[in-house]
């Protein structure tokens, strides 16, 4: 998903449409509001903290506003964020206002427009919309909480909550899982297929390669940059070329082209990994490893805190592999020995028994 691929500038562009997820309905990319039916025990009455969460502005209702730089009907990365908000808002009897495909140059005005609709919480779907953040300091947004997925280039301010993860951790673990699958087969050749050759894709392949080499030190990783994350024809061409070269496990680190590439890998018996969501239940295409760093997963935890009046502004939440529920890597299928080794590896990362960034530097070239 970049130097911090999930939250960095290129992150959302990367996973604009990876694997379909089985969540509710579709929404327009135009600004829309979804009002959930009021339920018994509606939590909108009252608040739970000094800031009055969740009814921050004290108008007797709770309204969540989501701005996304991508297509919120993409079936993947961007939609997962909106679907999480919609599902949670429905359960609480809140109103959700959502707007997708927000141009970065329009981020500030889009945030102001949400505040004028008296939202209690603004959530940015990805940090490409960082230019919206100055609105948090303006009077129009004076009674609004902010949730911001962040890369390292977004400064902390008292008015926002930052949500951060480390790309090296989950991509190293993804590579480790791929290495275990290679080891099981007695093979030494893996593949990585992605779109443009830019910083976040280059960083991703280095971490993936390093993870594989922690298990199979002399492994080869065949890398293909197709130039387009969503072009299925290019992805299938790259996958066929890698299959012809004898790769046995491939990471289709793609957007809308993920499923097409994975189906081809399935037909050749090549193991595959997901770029962001849990797809272990999927049968067409079939994935062997789910690498999970969906923004919706992080946002769900933040919304739970918001409902309880505990979402803190002016702080940075750093998500840790092996400590927090996400990011994580999940083995699909019944391979108990591999699962045991993978879980132990992630626990070691969480316990800081080694430095993922150092391992990527040592083995990722």
TrEMBL record:
Boundaries of every ABC transporter substrate-binding protein PnrA-like domain copy: 61-324
Region ranges (Disordered): 39-58
Membrane topology: Lipid-anchor
TM region positions: none
Subcellular location, record wording: Cell membrane
Keyword list, A-Z: Cell membrane, Lipoprotein, Membrane, Signal
InterPro entries membership: BMP_lipoprotein (IPR050957), Peripla_BP_I (IPR028082), PnrA-like (IPR003760)
Primary site of residence: membrane
Keyword Signal included in the entry's annotation: yes
Keyword Phosphoprotein found: no
Pfam families per record: Bmp
Signal peptide: 1-22
Family note: Belongs to the BMP lipoprotein family.
Protein name: BMP family ABC transporter substrate-binding protein
Species of origin: Microtetraspora fusca
């Amino acid at each position: 998903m970049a130097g911090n691929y999930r939250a960095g500038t290129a992150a959302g562009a990367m996973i604009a449409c990876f694997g379909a997820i089985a969540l509710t309905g579709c929404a327009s990319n135009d600004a829309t509001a979804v009002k959930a039916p009021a339920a018994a025990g509606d939590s909108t009455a009252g608040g739970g903290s000094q800031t009055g969460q969740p009814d921050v502005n004290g108008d007797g209702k709770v309204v969540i506003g989501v701005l996304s730089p991508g297509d919120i009907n993409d079936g993947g990365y961007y939609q997962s964020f909106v679907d999480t908000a919609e599902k949670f808002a429905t359960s609480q009897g809140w109103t959700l206002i959502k707007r997708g495909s927000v141009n970065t140059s329009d981020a500030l005005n889009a945030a102001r427009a949400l505040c004028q609709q008296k939202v209690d919480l603004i959530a940015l779907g990805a940090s490409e919309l960082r230019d919206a953040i100055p609105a948090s300091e303006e009077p129009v947004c004076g009674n609004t909480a902010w949730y911001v997925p962040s890369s390292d280039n977004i400064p902390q301010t008292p008015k926002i909550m930052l949500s951060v993860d480390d790309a090296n951790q989950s991509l190293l673990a993804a590579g480790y899982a791929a290495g275990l699958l290679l080891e099981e087969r007695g093979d030494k050749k893996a593949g990585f297929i992605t779109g443009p050759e830019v910083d976040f894709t280059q960083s991703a392949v280095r971490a993936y390669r390093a993870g594989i080499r922690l298990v199979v030190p002399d492994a080869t990783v065949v890398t293909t940059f197709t130039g387009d994350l969503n072009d299925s024809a290019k992805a299938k061409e790259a996958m066929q070329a890698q299959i012809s070269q004898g790769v046995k496990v491939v990471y289709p680190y793609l957007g809308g082209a993920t499923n097409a590439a994975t189906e081809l890998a399935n037909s050749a018996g090549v193991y595959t990994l997901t770029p962001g969501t849990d797809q272990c239940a999927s049968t067409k295409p079939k994935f062997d490893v789910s690498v999970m760093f969906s923004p919706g997963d992080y946002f769900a935890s933040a919304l739970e805190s918001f409902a309880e009046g505990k979402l803190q502004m002016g702080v940075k939440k750093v998500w840790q592999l092996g400590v927090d529920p996400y990011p994580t890597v999940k083995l699909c299928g019944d391979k108990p020995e591999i699962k045991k080794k993978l879980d132990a590896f992630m626990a070691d990362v969480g316990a800081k028994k080694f430095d993922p960034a150092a391992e990527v530097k040592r083995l990722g070239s």
